[in-house]
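#struct-queue
[09:14] JT: dropping the first one here, sequence first, then the structure tokens:
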Amino acid sequence: MTDRSDQTSSAIHADQPTVRALPADVTFNDLIRANKRKSMLLMIGMGLLVVLLGAAISAMLAVWGGGIASLVPSVIVGTVVAVIVAVIASTWSFYGGSKAILRIAGAVPIQHKDDPQLFNVVEELSIAAGTPMPQVYLINDPAMNAFATGRDPAHGAVAITTGLREKLSRDELAGVMAHEISHIRHYDIRFAMLMATMVGLIVFASDAFWRIMWYGSWHGTGRRSARGGGKGSGAIVLIIMVIAIVLAIIAPMLAMLIRFAVSRQREYLADAGAVELTRYPQGMIGALEKLGACKEPLKGANRATAHLFIVNPLKNALKGKGHELSSTFRTHPPLHDRIARLRALIQ
């Protein structure tokens, strides 16, 4: 492994000038509290989308198959079922999501004796952040990447690929680990897991809606129901169908856009958090430059977990300019923008 700073360099550079990553009147504790508030509001919004879709599907089934008389009871049942499913899925994500993500990524827990330098860096940064030391995992993959998971700092974990571990100097390793510990410190990981669960439910509900639409149209149940209820019933059926269709189209797109936008903003904040902990922006800058040069996709990554990594690990995201592209449908901001913001933190 490259060990440029087996010299006297440490993960926290006390001899470096103070780097102000935030305005003078804003602290990282303020940002953590703001993150929690925003996370709660966004999760409520996502939950409402799930409930609305459940109610819309139930309303459609009621007017399509059972007539107008069964509309209200069906909407109530659909709403209750949607709430129950959302609570169960969120609970599983909260308590079991991190373990599932680590298994999917092929991450293996390691001990201090396996990589003393990595453990020392993580321990120093945890002390600087005022958080418990997270569990340390290694992913045996030549791709260059890292991620953090865990529902809160007491249950945090950081993972790094062998490909990235072998390429980084100690300063750069400190920058990457500080970035991941910042995610844990800011409660980003809890939010990311719950957000991914809500998006999955919304996409699933929308897909179920279109399947029901196809099934109902194929068998003609909607036409029979509309004819049986008269002109007034036909108008109500049409209105409900339009609302349901609009929700089924907009909800998944809106959920994904919110998820991507929030993910990009939190990457910027974690980069700034890395500088706050290490007092050495060049370490993080050097790591990002090396990450940008890597075109090797991570085998254990998928679309559901891509937003957790320090850079997008998917094959499609690495083509062409890859990490430098900017889009509302990308989970990560362009690397040149992240590096420019880090350089701007040096005062």
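[09:21] JT: and here's the second one, same format:
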Amino acid sequence: MGLVGLLWRALAVFRVGALGYVTILVATRFPGYAHPALGWLVLAGMAVWTGFATWAYALPRRRRWPLLAADLAAAVGALAVSYWVVGPEDMRSGAATLPMAWVAAPVVAWAVYAGRRAGAVAALVVGGVDIAVRGGGGGMFSDAAVSYLNASVLLLLAGLIMGYVARLAVQAEQRLQRAAELEAATRERERLARGIHDSVLQVLALVQRRGAELGGEAARLGRLAGEQEATLRALVAGDGAIAEGAADPRTGDLLDLRAVLNRFAAPDVTISAPADPVSLPAPVATELAAAIGSALDNVRVHCGVDTPVWVLVEAEPEAVTVTVRDDGPGIPDGRLAEAAAAGRLGVAQSIQGRMRDLGGAATVVSAPGQGTEVELRLPLPA
């Protein structure tokens, strides 16, 4: 049970306790009431409603406006009947109303459900009915008037404070849930990091070392393996795509997309970007860079490590567009669909899936013998 659930349970306890207090008052004072029988009838109705409300508020799906409105109407009705039960003269002289503190329950319920404004509205309704029932109380500054005005003010403060506490409870639960999710994600990343370190990273390190020893084309492959090893190590360590001169993605700051793409620069990779910074939220820039990196990896795997690649970054007021073009052999018609059906999801997930999650789109244009062009377009918020 969360913090808000505990507030609803506390309200149920308060409602039952307030009913018990009202019962004691009625039992000791009913001989002096103008209509004692009506008082007992109202008390019975309050008991029935207390049982129903305790049951109804127990489940979140039943805590809706109709129940809240009925709860407030029940309190207002019991308060209004006090005029006839207790008697007009006694009410004007400052006698206690029949339901007493029991009328605070719907005010608290409104505050817990919808916040301090709703609680204040409910308190004003109850307080207004209380003042109307008493009919002035012998003057604004009489002892009787000050007494019931104090009760109305306290009820208003209770609505405001309980609404504020309820909102704090909701925020605390949300933060606790996010912390739990972050802890779970961190543990999963650590588990994956151990597995990757024991397999993929060691293989990449071996390829890099042996490639450097063999020289020639193998050295080129070794250098690429070393680059991928460094990127993967940063990823499993939680550093993402932190680039020199760029902000840390974990801080929620902005990243300059140009700085993030600098790590892809190579003799066969030409990066063209605007002279002005292309600032994006850190998580967005990191994911966009990962999609671009996947496109470049596809070129190396399917076209050869020496295939020229051009990366063009275009910044517009409404969108950022990144185009990755190569002079490779191109992609035959239907090849991407076949790869996705076979479980090879490099384009479908690493590129198109990432862009879809960011709210953008990835378009692949290719033909045999004419190279491939991957356009990544990311709309920007107004």
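[09:30] RK: nice, looked through the second one.
[09:31] RK: Residues 137-141, 239-252 have pLDDT under 50 and may be disordered.
[09:31] JT: good to know. The radius of gyration is 35 Å.
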